[in-house]
Amino acid sequence: MIAHVIATLRIVTGAVGLFLGYYELFGKNLEDAVDTIIIGAVGIVGLLSFTGHLIFQRSDARRLGWEVDKPYYQYEVGFAHLAFALIAFFTYFGQWGYSAKILAALGYTIYLLQIGLLYLWRCFAEHKVFSRYFLRHTIFTFVYVGLMFYFIARVMDSAQIALF
Q1: DSSP secondary structure string for all residues of 77-127
Q2: pLDDT given for residue 7 in this prediction
Q3: What is the average pLDDT across 115-120?
Q4: Which class for 160: exposed (0-12), middle (13-18), buried (19 or more C-beta within 10 A)?
Q5: Quick one: pLDDT band at residue 27, thresholds 50, 70, 90?
Q6: CA dist list (Å): 38 to 43, 83, 113, 124, 126
Q7: What is the widest separation between alpha-carbon atoms in the chain?
Q8: Residues 132-144: pLDDT tens digits?
C-alpha cells in the first residue's frame, strides 16, 4: 500500500516539476526552468524513488512484481536514484551553473530510459504488452523520458551549450 502512495507522489511530483519547468522555459526564464526541473523532476523524484525502493522495498517489490525475499536489486535501484537526487541537489545548492544541472538531468533521464526499456523488455518477455503493468510502467516512463529529453534539448539550445 505504501509503495502505491510513494509511486503516486513520485508521478505527481514529476508531472508538476515538468509542467512548471516548461512554464518557465516557454516564459523565457531559463534559470528558473532549469532549477525547477533539477529540484522537482530529478531531486525530489529521485528521493521518493529511493524511499520506495530501499525503505519500503517489500511493498514496492510486490507493486512491481519483483522478488520480495531478495531485496538486493531493490537496494541497487534505490541507491542509483539517491545518487542522482544528491547530484541534483549539489548542482542546485552549489551554484554549479547550467552545464552541471543539464548534465545531472540528462544522466537521470538516460537512466530512466534504461528503466523504461527494461519494463518494455519484461512486458514482451512475459506477454504483457497490453496489460495494466505496460500502461502504468512502460508508457509513463517513456512519456516522462521524452518530455525530459525535449526539455534538456531546448535548454541546451537556449543556453547555447553543445553536447560535444
Answers
A1: HHHHHHHHHHHHHHHHHTT--HHHHHHHHHHHHHHHHHHHHHHHHHHHHTT
A2: 86
A3: 91
A4: exposed
A5: very high
A6: 6, 13, 17, 33, 35
A7: 49
A8: 777 777 899 999 9
Q: Which three cell numbers stand for residue 38?
A: 533539477
Report residue 17 as a C-alpha cell: 516539476
Where b means 16+ CB within 10 Å and e means fewer, 117-127 reads: eebbebbeeee
Sequence letter at residue 127: H
Three cell numbers, residue 98? 547550467
Read off the C-alpha cell for 80: 542509483
**CB of 158 closer than 8 Å to CB of 99:** no
Q: How far apart are CA 89 and CA 39, in angstroms?
A: 7
pLDDT tens profile 38-78? 999 999 999 999 998 888 878 777 777 777 787 888 889 99
What pLDDT does residue 34 have?
97
Give dist(CA 144, CA 164) in Å, integer.
24
- Per-residue DSSP letters for 5-27? HHHHHHHHHHHHHHHHHHHHHHT
Q: How many CB atoms within 10 Å of residue 19?
A: 14
